[in-house]
Amino acid sequence: MAVCIGIESTAHTLGVGIFKGERMLANENDMYRPKKGGIHPRVAADHHAEVFGSVLRAAFEKSKIAKGEVDFVAYARGPGLGPCLKVGMAGASALAAKLGVPLVPVNHCAAHVEIGAHYCKMKDPLILYVSGGNTQIVVREAGIGRRENGAVARRGRGYHVMGETLDIGVGNLIDVFARSLGEEFAHGSVVEKLATGGKYFPLPYTVKGMNMTFTGLLTEATKQLGSHDKKDVCFSLQETAFSMLTEATERALALTRKKEVLACGGVAQNRRLAEMLALMAREHKARFATSPPEFNADNGAMIAYTGLLARRQAIDWRKADVNPKWRLDEAVI
Ligand code: ATP
Ligand code: FE2
Predict the structure, then answer these.
(1) How far is the CA of 298 from the centre of ligand 1 (A)?
(2) pLDDT tens digits along 237-266
(3) 250 C-alpha to center of ligand 2: Å?
(4) How does DSSP classify residue 77?
(5) pTM of the model
(6) Tens digit of pLDDT for each residue in 180-199?
(7) Which end of the chain is more exposed for a tag (fewer CB within 10 A), N or C?
(8) Neighbours of ion ligand 2 (CB under 5 A)
C-alpha cells in the first residue's frame, strides 16, 4: 500500500500527516497563535519554518515508518496565504528531493472535502464547506475537472461549486463580529456559547439562488450590539446566517437529489448549524454527517490522504509552485 506524507501550511497551522492506503499513521500539527488580533502572513510563515523540522520528526516517530517506505510527498498548494504556502512548498520539495519521490500538489479545500467524505463513509455527498475563508456548496463529479487555464481534465475527478458566498466566508463573519463583543477570544465557539438561551430578532438575510452574502448581516448585527442584549444578538446572528446556509444547501439538494449531505470546515463544528442541516436533510431523506473535528481544523493528514487520491497529478519537485487563490473548481484529483 502506498505511503504519502502531507504538508499543510495554508494559514495558521503547520501540519504533517502520514497515510498508508486508507489508514492514518500520523497527524501532527503546530498552530501559530498571535498574541493579539489577526494573523500576519509573514510572522505565521516564520513560525512554520521554525517548527517544520520538529513536526516532521514527530510525525515520522508516530507513524513508525522508515523514510524508505515513503512513496509520495503531498503539499497544500493553495488557497491560502502566500508566504505560508511557500514555506510548506519549500519543505515538501526538499523532502521529495531527498527521498527521491514525486511531489503531489493538493488543493486545501478539496482535502477538507475528501477526508470528510472518507471518515463519514460517503460515496457521493452534497457538501457544505464552511470555514473562516470559505463558504461553498459543492458536488464532486467525474469528468468535469477543470484546470486553472480553463482546460477540461480528461482523467480524474473535479469539483463543481453550485453556490457560494459572494463576499466574506461565514467564519469570517462570525470572527469579525466576535471582535466587537469584547471577549478575550474572538471565535465562533465563543459566539455559540453566548447564543445559548438568546431571543431572536430579524437581521438582514441575503440568499440569491444558491449564493449568499454576509457583510450586510455583519454590519447590522454589530450595530445592534448597542441596543440589544449580547446574547440575543449572538443568537439572531447564528440563526440568520445558518438559515441562509441551510436554505441554499436545500436548494442544491432538491436539484441534485443527492442522498448524502456532508458539512465540513471550522464552522461545521457549530451544533446549531448541524442541527438545522440534519433536519433539512431528513426531510429530503438524505443522510447528514459532519466531518470529525480533527479534520475540520487545518491538518496535515487530510493533505496526505488527498495526495494519495491525486497521485496522478504528481510532479517533479523542481516544478513546484503555489497558488494563493486556487479555487476548488480548478482542482482535479
Ligand atoms: P480554510 O483555510 O479552510 O478557510 P480557516 O483557517 O479559515 O480554514 P478553519 O480552521 O477551518 O478556518 O475554521 C476556523 C473558523 O471556524 C473560524 O472562523 C472559527 O470561528 C470557526 N468556528 C470554529 N468553531 C466554531 C463553532 N463552534 N461555531 C461557529 N464557528 C466556529
Ligand atoms: Fe482549512
Answers:
(1) 9
(2) 999 999 999 999 999 999 999 999 999 999
(3) 24
(4) E
(5) 0.94
(6) 998 878 899 999 999 999 99
(7) N
(8) 298
